[in-house]
Amino acid sequence: MEFTAGGLLEVRITPADVGKRVSVRRVEGGLSGSPEFTDTVGVLTSWDQGVLVITRKNGQSVRIAESLLVAGKVVPPAPARRRGPAASFEELSRIAARSWQPLESEPLGGWTLRAAAGFTRRANSVLPLGDPGIPLDDALARVTSWYAERGLPAYVQAATGAAGTQELLCAKLERRGWVSEVSAEVRIGALAPVADVEAPAAGSVRLTRVPDEEWLGRYGKVTDPDLARRMLVEGPSVWFAALPGGRAIGRLVVDGRWAGFAAVTVDPEHRRAGLATAVMAALAGKALEEGASAAWLQVETDNAGALALYDGLGFATHHAYHHYRRGAAS
Description:
The protein is of the alpha+beta class. The protein has helices at residues 89-99, 136-148, 167-175, 192-196, 213-219, 225-232, 275-289, 304-312; strands at 21-28, 36-48, 51-55, 61-65, 69-74, 104-108, 111-115, 126-128, 155-160, 179-190, 206-208, 238-242, 248-255, 258-266, 294-300, 316-325.
């Protein structure tokens, strides 16, 4: 925020700025006495009947009464990272989609409807990269019927927090009763430092092209092993890592310069022993051999242990994404 207590506060935004990134200050507790000021930065997703809605980077929507505004302006997109790899939202989204391929998909304009018998939300949700080519309500009706035909709930995966993300779509979904069930961060970082981390168990990591029963058992999200194995092996260049006894596992997909880490899971009895780091280091080394230089991963926002691990390995948040499920009344 660039507002200062001694400077001139001025509201320089209007409803015409919906869809732009803005910075606003509002006053709480009245305009006399000892007012408190609150600053909010995000995308202005609506301004209707005297109420602004601003969607923050993490996807949280903030409602602000127009009468409480004391300052507001349009601000440029968040500055690009100065260190490590760089990528656009669309580039990362398409790379991530290739790493979790569905069993079937169908285009709807610029949207892609994906299904995989319910195995992972990522492979069983709409990826809306572009315009569906028809009015939004018609598109959502088509989405709902397409998933219902397959006995699946309708999900839309939409992103916030970077240039080109989908704050407006998120707001429109929420107004139609769609509910965000799971939020995650997409993080990126340099690959070589991950491979260079010293982890005592790194030499014991076994790398394979296909997950075995022990790997699937540690993954713990498998009801149909044949389906899971069929899904997990799909990708440009897929590797699976495991420590003896299923103490820790991981999955990696190498796609050009990018290496995507997933399914990094440690036996609860062996946590905080550097096993996740060992698995990631071994996978990173393999990715470097295949010519990758940048890394990405997805981590749910409430997974404190994983967030701390990835902080320590130099991963920084690029954007967030949210799985919106069709509500009962929508």
